[in-house]
Structure formats: structure tokens, C-alpha cells
Automatic annotation (TrEMBL):
It comes from Streptomyces thermolilacinus SPC6. One of its GO terms (cellular component) is extracellular region. Pfam families: PETase. This is Lipase. Coiled coil: none annotated. The lineage of its organism: Bacteria, Bacillati, Actinomycetota, Actinomycetes, Kitasatosporales. It comes from the Bacteria.
């Protein structure tokens, strides 16, 4: 009985000592800044800032490889932009289609811009520059299949983490691709054009980018109904560029880049470090006419 209080005191101080040791071990052996792989195996690159997602280049040096149209079937070849390093494991990948009468050069700026943030980016040519959205959708998928199964760079890509983007008819094509392949993890149609206005089949988190001054694919009959006719249960967003034309996605554009990077990171890499740029919803500004979406994101 006399010993009892002493034993308890001793036990408490031993627990405290062990806890202190555990904290010290945690500090000594735990993740260092930038090494978050144990938390999320898909996370790549350092913690983002507003400056880092607006920058013309991200943290990864980028290499590129030309894919001849003669070497592939189902699409028109293209250019693969990829992080040069082989020290960071595999990367998610995105295929990007140009619009009507356009070639990959019309969307080329997105190659190094996105790849330098930690993605393999395949800007493609289509079989003919007159191909319609349904064809462009099939071609985006053929390009991803080539990239993940045939390309010499296939070992650098995580074939379970794929997305699609496209401009205008290519944006309409990216909706078609997501509709037919629900395993895609992100879609970003840029000033998209499509005769089909309804997308209840899509299960892929989709960011639709419209331009307030678009007279070729006016947002009132394209981007806005596409967004509104995605499932309301889906992670989805509508970004309308302020003071922008149908051709805004054809040259370097910081607003397109920062929200595309955030969307791809958030949904292809499950990287919640980028949620801060998407939620709460961005407010109207000199570059954003309006932004619609759901917050917080669910998937
Ligand atoms: O840039 C585009 O792909 C525009 C789509 C378009 O003008 O379609 C009209 C036939
Ligand atoms: Zn439809």
C-alpha cells in the first residue's frame, strides 16, 4: 500500500519519458519538407505557392520527344514533354488536342508549362485538322494508350493516373473522351465546342474553361451548358476568363495555367496541397469573369 503512490508516480514519469523519446524520434526520422511521399504516393514536387503555379516554369526540368504520325495509329502523332529526372518515380499524364484546323503547335505552350510541374504531357496532332469532337475524343484516348503501352517513355508514366485536355473541338473531344473512359481522373476542356450539350455520363472531375468574348464557341451555348449538364454530384468547375477570346488557350495564359495545374494536381495526383487554389472558389478579378464549382471537393 505504501509503495502504491510511488509506483504510480514512477509509472507516469516513465510514460512521459517514453512519450518525449517518441517525439524526438518522430522529429529525427519523420518526413523532411518536400518528402511527403509516405502520405500520398502520387504527390510530386515541393509544396506549391501562388507564385509557383503562376510561374512560366515549375520545379522540374523538361525534356521532349517527337512522335511521328507514321509511327502510330488512331491519332496524328505529337510531342511528349516529360520531367527529365528519373529520380522521382512515375508521373501522371495528360493528352491535349488542338481545335478545328489547328495543329499541336497551337497548344504547344502547355507542354513544358504543365510538364515542369510534374506531369507527362502529350500534345497531339489529329488525323486530319477537320476532325470533329467525337473523333478527337477517340484520338486523345489512342494517344494515352500509345503513351502508356508503346512509347519508350511508358515506364515514366503511371497508367492509372491520366487526364485529357483540348482546345475548342479538342475541348469538345476531351468531354467525349471522359464520357467513354470513366477511369480518366481529370478533364479540362478549353473554350470547348460541341453540338452535344449534355454530359450526364461523365464521372471524371472536369474543369471547363470558357472565355467571355468567345464568338466562335459562345459560353452561353457551349461552356456554360456543358458545365451545368455535368452531374451535380461530380467534382466540377467552370472558369470563365475575363476579357478573353476563343483563342486564349492558343498562347501562354497564366490563369489557364494556374487552374489547370491545380486541377490536374488535385485530381490526377490526389494532391490536396493544391486544394487551397480551388476552394474557396476563386473570386471574379481582372482575369476571371466568373467561377462556378463545388467546394469542398469530394474525390
Ligand atoms: O476552334 C474550334 O475548334 C472551333 C470549332 C468551330 O468553329 O466549329 C464550327 C464548325
Ligand atoms: Zn450528351
Amino acid at each position: 500500500m505504501h509503495q502504491h503512490p510511488h509506483t504510480q508516480r514512477r509509472t507516469r514519469s516513465l510514460s512521459s519519458a517514453l512519450a518525449a523519446v517518441a517525439v524526438l524520434v518522430g522529429i529525427g526520422l519523420g518526413p523532411t519538407p518536400g518528402a511527403h511521399a509516405a502520405d500520398n504516393p502520387y504527390e510530386r514536387g515541393p509544396a506549391p505557392t501562388n507564385a509557383s503555379i503562376e510561374a512560366v516554369r515549375g520545379p522540374y526540368a523538361v525534356s521532349q520527344a517527337t512522335v511521328s504520325s507514321l509511327a502510330v495509329t488512331g491519332f496524328g502523332g505529337g510531342t511528349i514533354y516529360y520531367p527529365t529526372t528519373t529520380s522521382d518515380g512515375t508521373f501522371g499524364a495528360v493528352a491535349i488536342s488542338p481545335g478545328y484546323t489547328g495543329t499541336q503547335s497551337s497548344i504547344a505552350w502547355l507542354g513544358p508549362r504543365l510538364a515542369s510541374q510534374g506531369f507527362v504531357v502529350f500534345t497531339i496532332d489529329t488525323n486530319t485538322t477537320l476532325d470533329q469532337p467525337d473523333s478527337r475524343g477517340r484520338q486523345l484516348l489512342a494517344a494515352l494508350d500509345y503513351l502508356t503501352r508503346v512509347s519508350p517513355l511508358r515506364t515514366r508514366v503511371d497508367s492509372t493516373r491520366l487526364g485529357v485536355m483540348g482546345h475548342s473541338m479538342g475541348g469538345g473531344g476531351s468531354l467525349e473522351a471522359a464520357k467513354s473512359r470513366p477511369s480518366l481522373q481529370a478533364a479540362i476542356p478549353l473554350t470547348p465546342w460541341n453540338l452535344d450539350k449534355t454530359w450526364p455520363e461523365i464521372q471524371t472531375p472536369t474543369l471547363i474553361v470558357g472565355a467571355d468574348g468567345d464568338s466562335i464557341a459562345p459560353v452561353s451555348s457551349h461552356a456554360e451548358p456543358f458545365y451545368e449538364n455535368l452531374p451535380s454530384s461530380l467534382d466540377r468547375a467552370y472558369l470563365e476568363l475575363n476579357g478573353a477570346s476563343h483563342f486564349a488557350p492558343n498562347s501562354s495564359n497564366t490563369t489557364i495555367a494556374k487552374y489547370s495545374i491545380s486541377w490536374l494536381k488535385r485530381f490526377i495526383d490526389n494532391d490536396t496541397r493544391y486544394e487551397q487554389f480551388l476552394c474557396p472558389l476563386p473570386r471574379p478579378s481582372l482575369t476571371i469573369e466568373e467561377y462556378r464549382g463545388n467546394c469542398p471537393h469530394q474525390s
